[in-house]
Amino acid sequence: MPFRSTFFGRNPIRVSWGLRRRTAVSPSSAPNNPLGSVPHSLHKKLLTKVMAQRMMRRYFALFLGGVMKPLFGIALLFLSSAFLCSGGSAQIVIIIPTPTPTVIPTPTPDRDFNKDGQVNAKDLLDFIQGWHTGTAGDVVTVDIPNLQSDARPLKLVRIPAGTFQMGALSSERGVGFGEGPAHIVTVEKDFYLSVTEITQAQWEAITGKNIADQRDLADTSFQIYTVGKDVPIYYVSWNDAQDFISGLNALGQGTFRFPSEAEWEYACRAGSNSRFFFGDSLNCDDNCADCAENLLATNTRADYMWHCFTDGINGYTRGPKEVGSLLPNPFGLYDMHGNVWEYCQDWYHPTYSGAPTDGSAWEDPVSTQRIYRGGHSFAHADICRSAFRSAIDPSTRHTYAGVTELRWMRRNRLSILAEGMG
Known about the structure:
alpha+beta; paralog of FGE (formylglycine-generating enzyme); five-stranded antiparallel sheet; 6 helices; 13 strands; globular; disordered C terminus
C-alpha cells in the first residue's frame, strides 16, 4: 500500500511499502536493461547489489518519515513554548484536540427584590422604582418580635428629599374645600415610609390586639369586614396608633412617627402633578367608574386604586383588601389611593394659609382634629385624589362623615426619619 510522508511540510517523498514478486531478466528479454551488456556471470551479483541499494534507500526514507519527523515536531513544540514564555512578540498557533469543556452552573442572582418568596412582575416594578429614585434596594425591614412567620414584614423605603407643589389648583376636577392655596414645599431631608399600610398581623404583634379587639373598642355592633394577617388594621383611632408607634420605638431600631401631611402628599405624588400619581384619569366620572388612565395604556384605575368600583361589586369582596395587591407608585409605595384612610401628624387647619413650607408637620396652633389622607375602599374616586384631605377627632375609632359607612376604616402608615437609621 502506498505511504505518503511530508518532511517539514515540503517536497513529498513517495515510498512503496510492501512485497513485490521479482524475476530475473535476461539480456535478450530486456534490451533496455543497463545490466543487459554485462556477462551473465556478473549479472546475478550486480542485480543483488542494486536490489540492496534500493532497499537501503527505502529504509532510510522510512526512517526519516516515521522517526525523525515526529522527533522534529516535538523539538519544535518545545522551542516555541520556550520562546513564548520568554516574552517574545510572535504568535504561534498550535492546533491540538479540544477537550470537552466542563459545564459550571452559573449562580442565579437573587431577583426577589421585594423578598416575598416569589419572582414575578412585582419584583421588576420594585427594581424600576428603586432605580427611578436612585436608591435601588434602599429598603429597611423592621424586626418585629412575635410577628407570624408567614406574615408580611414591615418594610420601609427611602423617600428622597425634594420640592413639589402641594395642594390643588382651583381648576382641578373634583377639587374640594381646604385643598388650597396650592403652594411650593421643600422636603428638606430624606425619610423612610412604610411600603404598605400597617397590617393586622403587625398590629397584633406590637399591641396584642386583633381586629375583633379593635372593633369591640369602637362598638361591638359594628361589622368586621375582612380579616387576614396581611389585610390593613382598621377600627383604629389616631391615639391608638400612638401606642403602636411607641411599641415600635421601644424596639430600638429607629425613631418612628407619623408622616407630616406634606411628607404624605409628596410621597403619594412621587414626582407627579396630576390628580393621581398615575395620571388625571379624566376618561370617566369621579364616582365608582373604572377607566383607562394615563400612565400605561393597558391599565385602568382599578390597577392602582381600591375605591368603590372594587368594593362589594364587579366580583370584588367588601372592605379593605390585602396590602400590596395593586401596582405601586414610582417611589415603591402601595395603596396610596384608597383601601383605608391614612393618618398624618398634623392638626387640621381649614386651608394652607400659613402652612409650613419645609415639609414639617403643622402642629401650632393646635385644633381639635387630626389629618388623614388617601380615601378608602368604598370611597368615590375624587376622594382618593392626591390632594384630597380630611380630618377626625384623634380619639374616634369610626366616623361616617356624611360619605359612606366605611370612612372609619383607616390605616396607619408610618415613616422613619433617615437620621434615625444611623
